[in-house]
Structures are given as structure tokens and as C-alpha cells.
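Researcher: Next sequence.
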Amino acid sequence: MVEVTLKDVARASGCSVATVSRVLAGTRPVGAETARRVRDAAERLGYRPNHVARALRSRSTGTVGLVLPQITNPFFPALVRELEHALHAEGRALLLADCDDDPETEAARIGALLDRQVDALLVVPADERRSRPAVAAAAARVPLVLLDRGCGAGVADSVAVDNAAGMTLVLDHLAATGRRRPCFVGVAGTASTAVERHAAYEAGIGALGPDVPRRAELGDFSVAWGRAAADRLWPSRPDALVCANDLIAAGALQQLRRLGADVPGEVAVTGFDDIPLAGLADPALTTVRQPVAELAAEAARLLARRPSAAAPAARRAVRLAPRLVVRGSSAPDPAASGRSRAPA
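Model: Next structure:
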């Protein structure tokens, strides 16, 4: 198959090569009739741009690298989908890498993407502290935005949900439904989402009353940990399990049913993220919805506002408002009317 070139399109449209290049690249305004002739000729001949040659000329590959902690977490495929849409609208392609929650693998994946000459990077760091050196080094080379999780102040631009606000929504809901013996089922380690959600729970638990016990069990972001935590906690009969994400909550729900617990009559269960699984659980899961489309759009905007790593601009930290989605796993406890409530 013979490759169709700009010269072929120029000859077929009766325009100069420079004009054809301007029309197809969209770099400068061209008359409507001229643009129509060029596009018609390009389509008729089957012209396809040579992205490699364009990259060599412009020193831009039109690609953005994305490094995730673990693609098996259903929250991340939804985020990838929205990011791909947002970047495609700007004419950019997305290259995906998974680090399996390992900061050393994460550093290697970042290096591999930089070797492929990506124009920018999006990173969901595996660990707030241990991910920092590789992220900071990459941010000095290309525009970089941290998504969903952080690496400490000043390392790079970042966009995430307001985890503290989300946990406040959960605790206010549980207080309003009369729950007084909650337990937090969270995640050990220093991923910023784990740390922030646990800290927000500890700071806000007083909303349920002055004598509410403070109990937390920490594991990982998995269904298996949710099952294990429910098994460990149910003998003490908590009336609410506040889970750090929906995978943990789904595992807890499953195990509570196996143990014969009445959800939500005896115990409420809440999650965080609102992955598709949340609405399919039995009962459907009350959770904090992350604005995934807004996260992706804001990340794309942050990349566009920082055209180069050396651009002398202060780092931006954007926090987006979450929303509580109340479903069957935390319906009001029928016995709540007989309990004392925290003052309004």
C-alpha cells in the first residue's frame, strides 16, 4: 500500500502543501471553502497523519502517561474511561501502566513512560511517602498531575475528592439514623486516601455522641479484608461499619449475611467511591460518590495550564465536593426512635 502524503492531498485539492498542513493540523485559520476542499481530498485519498514524523518535528508525541496503583480496583477503570475521553477531546492519547501497589514498580513504570517521550504524566501514587521521590523527579521533567491521592504539599499539581467532607457526610447520616456503636474499617499504610479517611472519621466521630467508642480495624482496599474485618468485629455487635472504600464494604456485607446479621436492622454498612458494584450489592450500598468525570476534566485542565515542567507557577491542589448516596445498607434503624440522639 502506497502512503498518501501531504503533497498528494495538496495536488488533489489544488492548494499548497503549507495550506494543507495548516488545515489538517488546525494551527491557523483558513477559509471555509479551502478547508472543505482540503478535507474532502484527504478523505477521498485516505490520508492519515504520520504521528511519528509530527512528533519528531514538534518534539511532542501527543501522549499522556497514566500510572495506577491497581487496575483491578473498579474505581480506576471508571477514572481511566473519563480521562481517555477528556484527553481525546484535546487530541491526546493515553498510555496506561499498573504498578500493583508497589512504589518500586511505580518508579519503574514512570521511568518507562518518560523513556517513551510522553508529553505529561498522571499518577495515582501507591504510597504518599515512598512514591514521592519518583514523582518529584518526574514532575521536574514533564507536566505532572496527581490524581485521587497525594504525595505531600508542593510535589506536583493535584486533584482529588475532599475525603474529609465525604466522611462527614457519612457520620452525619449515621448520627441522624441513630447509630451509636460504629467501627471504622480502613487501610493500613500511608496512601493518602487511607490516611485522610481514617483521620476524618476520628475527627468526626463525636457527631454520634460524647460516649461513642473509637474503634478501627485496618487492612487493605480489598473485598477479602472486608470479609475478615466483619468476622472480627461482629462478635462485639457494632451498629455500623464505616468502610474506607466500596470493596471493603462489599466484603463486609457479604460476611455479615453469612453470619446471619440483619443489615441494616442490626448494623449499617457504608462505603466510599460509588463503584458500579455498590448499587448491585444486597442490600444496595450507601456510599460516598466521587465526581469521576470532574476529576478527569480537572486533571486535563491542570495539564493544559502547565505547558512545561519548568513553568514557574505555584502548585495547585484542587479538592472536589463528594455526594452521599443513601441506599438500603444504612436505612434508619427501627430502634433509633427509642435512643437518645446527639444534640442538633
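Model: Residues 333-344 have pLDDT under 50 and may be disordered. The longest helix spans residues 32-45.
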